[in-house]
Design brief:
The structure is a single chain. The protein is mostly helical. The chain has one domain: lambda repressor-like DNA-binding domains (434 Repressor (Amino-terminal Domain), Orthogonal Bundle), CATH 1.10.260.40. Helices cover 58% and strands 0% of the residues. α2 crosses α3.
């Protein structure tokens, strides 16, 4: 499974946007984009979903027991 940091960075580069441009278009602060791409773990789910929505994705909590079944 691809890490969130890798996914966002690869997709951002694929659409040829700088971190600054991407932050502006996704409606989040530049520091948020940098934290995501650096793999920081203390992120707000709502803010992460603003970024992921640019690619038609959403992050949601998953029950680990459901994954094991």
């Amino acid at each position: 499974m691809k890490r969130l940091s890798e996914f966002v960075k690869e997709r951002r580069k694929a659409v040829n946007l700088t971190q600054e441009q991407f932050a502006e278009r996704s409606g989040v602060a530049l520091t948020v984009i940098r934290k995501i791409e650096q793999g920081k773990t203390n992120l707000n789910l709502e803010t992460v979903n603003l970024v992921l929505s640019m690619f038609g994705h959403e992050l949601a909590p998953v029950n680990i027991k459901e994954l094991e079944e």
